[in-house]
Every structure is written in C-alpha cells, then in structure tokens.
Design a protein that fits this description.
Blueprint lengths: L2 H27 L7 H6 L19 H8 L3 E8 L9 H6 L17 E8 L5 E4 L1 H4 L2 E7 L5 E3 L1 E6 L4 E5 L21 E6 L7 E12 L16 E4 L11 E3 L5 E9 L8 E6 H14 L9 E5 L2 H7 L9 E6 L4 H4 L7 E5 L2 E2 L3 H9 L6 E8 L2 E8 L17 E4 L2 E5 L2 H7 L5 E6 L2 H6 L6 E7 L2 E4 L3 H11 L4 E6 L5 E6 L3
Antiparallel strand pairs: 1-2, 1-4, 2-3, 3-7, 4-5, 6-7, 8-9, 8-11, 9-10, 10-13, 11-12, 12-13, 14-15, 15-16, 16-17, 16-18, 18-19, 20-21, 21-22, 22-23, 23-24, 23-25, 25-26
C-alpha cells in the first residue's frame, strides 16, 4: 500500500466516524414523546426545590404562620344603625360601609350590613376587632373559618384607638397569641389575615414599612384623645380586612388591621394596623372594666421639626423628639415639673421620636401608674417621674355604665342616649334594643328604632322614656296600635301592630 492510499484511508475513516457521531448526538438530544406535562417537566433542568437538602428558610416560611392564624380569624357582620355626620367618614371611605342616606327605603326594609374581620384572642370566645366595624350595630354575627355561626355581645369599645372587644358563647376555640409589636423591625415579613370583599380566610404577605405612623384618620373623637401610632405595611388589605390580624411569621399577633391609604377605596400600596402592645392593654381594660383606662400626662405637644424651630425662632438641640408647648394645671406633667419649652426624648427608657410614639407609650399605662420621662431643658438632659391621671384629673378607675333595659313579651327597650337626643333634637323616647316579638317583627319593627309616640283607641301617647313604653304596653298590650318614631339617622318611620 502506498503512502497516498494510506492517508486517503485515514481521511475516509475520520469522515465516517464524524458522521456516525453526529447522528448519535442528534438522536440523543431530540425531544422524546411525553404523555403529559409532568413527564415533560421531569426532563427539564434540575429543580433545587426537589433536592433532599433543600428547606424553606425559617425566616420566610409563611405556611406555618398561616396555618396557625387562619382558624382564629373570624368574619364579622353587623346590622348597623347610623347617626348623621357633618362630613364623609374616612373609615367608611376606606372600608366601603353604606351611606346612611341609602339605609332606609321607607318601607321597613332591613338595616344595612357592615362586614369586617375579627381575631379570637382566647379559647373562651373573646374577639378583638375595630370599633368602626361594630359601631352602631344592633346585631353582630360571627362566622368562624369552619362555618360555625355565633351571635356576639359587645363587651366594650374604644373610639380613641378604633378597637372593640366582642364575646361569643363558645369554648376550646383556636386563638392567636399576642406578640410584642415593639420588637417588630422595619423590613420584617408579616401576614395580613382577614375577609376582604367577603372572601373568607384570605392571607396576604408584606413587610413592615414604618412604625408609629399618624395618618389623621380618627377624627372627631370625644375629648380629642385619639391615639394613632400605626404599624405601616405593604401587605395587601382591602374592604373587609378591617379588624383582621397582622401577624409575624411565628404566628403572633402584632397588629389589628385598621385602614388603608387610598384614593380609590381599594388597596394602593400601604395599610395600617394598631400595634399589639396597645391592643392588648385596651382589651384588658375593656374585659375588666368595660371602659379604657387612659392615663394622661397633661401636656400640649408637637413634633420637633425645622418648621417648628423656624416658627418659634429657636434652635433645637435634637432633630427628633416632642416639644412641650404647654402644661395643663393639676396635671401629671405639672406635678412632675415639666415646663413649656422642654423636649421629651424618652418614656420608661424607650426613645421618643414623635408625638405618635409618645402618645402610644403613655396610652399603654393607666391612671395612677408612674412613668419615667426623659427630657431636654436648656440643652441639658434630665429625668423625672410622673404619676398619670385620668381625664377628670384624678387616678380613679372609670367604670362603664351598662344601660338599663326594660322588657315586655320578647321586646327589650332602653333609654335614648343624650348624644342622640341632641343630634335628633328630641326630648326622649324608647329604643328597641332587642325584638323577639313576632307581631312586632312582622309589623316592621327594627332594632335601634326610637319610639317617640304611640297611637291607640284612646288617642296619641307621647313616649319620653323606656319605662313609659313598658307602662303603655302593660295597659294596651293586646290592642291594635300605631308606633311612630325614627331611626338614629333621623329617618322618620311608623308601623302598625295588630291586636290579639
């Protein structure tokens, strides 16, 4: 064999080997027929989530928290009566409650239903929610996650923090443990659990965006004692979430969802929750006393800011803190030696950066409690102890007076509150508190209706009190009567009750 033939043989063998190799590779990489997407996806890239060594990091495990909290978040539905307002309520704007002008059709139709959320905080049926969810309610229905239904009793409410405590008669209920909102960090993961748009047991996730946020939503609170020191989060919250739980990833309650920042009425990026440290104090007060025990320092305060410094023509020694613009006579602040011009920078060892922060720290305490106040005066830092007082200027416990009720054959009446009398410009009447009388129910009687007069065969009788209504019924209970009055929003109405 010549050298030329040898080299040609090598070239031919190399060419044939390359063709065979290419054909084999082509066969191996061509897609195989798969019967379904499960099989197709099994041939894709290695999935790290299926690896034995892969676990979800504890810090971002939403599953465990959601499983703990969801069974303890309830759906709250309230039959609501309204009082007139001089302007649109921002809470109604955020959470879509019905306009009082749309409440009555004049034909004795059902009163409107407001819908929100609540959080079970004890196994024996105590539930925390927002005050605006149950405000003016004549009946409150609670639906658990397992679809069990209960009627709730209002133990107490606190408009100054927009919180309310309810109670249902049940036992061995799942509940959410209180966490420490002070330990919550900006940037920490949180879950919001509630019933937006009546979608039960909805869970959304976000982070804490800010703390001690004042958004000016609790307007018109009596005595101007509202407390706004909200946790701000970007967890999605919508109408119906109000009163629901904001929890950390340990499943602990760190806030009660209350409001959203919006121009449309739905979520636009930020929501706000009452911090759990304040919630727990308010719930304890309502359970034990029926009313919140507010300890007051008795000082007029403003945020330290460049604008305030320019207005007062002063140079502040700190960039953050609370400026004391005045001290009330006979107040805790006065007795502690605080003066106009002081800058409060701490309460009980906790840093105070703004008014909302200070108000929350003081609101956690009760009349008679002592707090340590750190302040700056003339450039020097000092401390003093102040014994907090209530709004009356003493340290007594305030008890809520439970309205006396009057009953007659399934009907329950109570007196008209002074505030309602003033708003409606009436001298008195009898409020239908509960209606268990079938004849009255068929006639169109509704809870919350204010009876001002009654017409019988003997003529028209003016009703000025609940006792007068009971006296009339005892004398004329079996007769056909016409009941006249109005709803708390001022809508006048009447109905006829047939005799026996």
């Amino acid at each position: 064999m010549s050298k030329k033939q040898f080299f040609l043989g090598l070239l031919l063998a190399a060419f044939l080997g390359g063709v065979v190799a290419l054909a084999g590779v082509s066969f191996l990489i061509q897609p195989q027929n798969a019967g379904n997407f499960d099989e197709k996806q099994q041939t894709s890239f290695v999935n790290l989530l299926s690896g034995k060594d892969f676990t979800v990091p504890d810090g971002i495990n939403f599953v465990a928290s959601a499983q703990v909290v969801t069974p303890a978040v309830v759906h709250v539905k309230s039959q609501v009566s309204y009082t007139p307002r001089s302007e649109r309520d921002p809470v109604e704007e955020f959470f879509g409650f019905p306009d009082p002008r749309e409440r009555q059709d004049g034909q004795g139709g059902e009163m409107p239903i407001s819908s929100g959320s609540g959080v079970i905080i004890s196994s024996d049926g105590y539930i925390v929610t927002n005050n605006h969810v149950v405000e003016g309610a004549t009946k409150i229905d609670i639906s658990l996650e397992n679809n069990k239904r209960y009627e709730a009793t209002v133990i107490g409410t606190d408009p100054t923090t927009d919180l309310a405590l309810l109670k249902i008669e049940a036992s061995n209920l799942p509940f959410v443990k209180f966490g420490d909102s002070d330990e919550t960090k900006i940037g920490e993961w949180v879950l919001a659990v509630g019933n937006p748009f009546d979608l039960n047991s909805t869970v959304t996730a976000g982070i804490i965006s800010a703390k001690a946020r004042n958004i000016g939503i609790l307007r018109g609170v009596e005595n101007n004692l509202q407390i706004e020191s909200f946790l701000q989060t970007d967890a999605v919250v919508n109408p119906g979430n109000s009163g629901g739980a904001l929890v950390n990833l340990a499943g602990e309650l760190i806030g009660i969802n209350t409001a959203i920042a919006t121009r449309t009425g739905t979520f636009s990026g930020y929501s706000f929750a009452v911090p759990s440290t304040l919630v727990k104090k308010v719930m304890d007060d309502l359970m034990n006393h029926g009313a919140v025990q507010r300890g007051l320092l008795g000082v007029q305060i403003q945020n330290v800011s460049p604008e305030l410094a320019d207005y007062l023509d002063k140079t502040f020694p700190v960039e953050q803190g609370v400026y004391v613009g005045g001290v009330n006579e006979n107040s805790a602040g006065k007795e502690a030696g605080l003066k106009e011009g002081d800058i409060i920078i701490g309460i009980d060892g906790k840093t105070v950066n703004n008014v909302a922060n200070l108000q929350e720290l003081v609101a956690r305490r009760r009349p008679g409690d002592k707090i340590d106040v750190e302040y700056i005066r003339d450039g020097k830092t000092s401390k003093t102890s102040a014994t907090l007082k209530n709004f009356s200027g003493d340290t007594n416990i305030v008890k809520r007076e439970v309205p006396k009720t009057y009953t007659f054959e399934g009907l329950q009446f109570e007196e008209v509150k002074d505030q309602i009398k003033e708003q409606l410009e009436i001298s008195g009447g009898a409020v239908i508190k509960m209606n268990g009388n079938e004849s009255w129910r068929k006639a169109g009687a509704r809870n919350g209706f204010i009876i001002t007069s009654v017409i019988s065969d003997s003529g028209r009788t003016r009703i000025n009190s609940a006792q007068e209504m009971i006296d009339f019924l005892e004398d004329n209970g079996g007769d056909e009567i016409v009941v006249l009055g109005m709803f708390p929003d001022g809508t006048e109405y009447y109905f006829e009750v047939e005799g026996n």
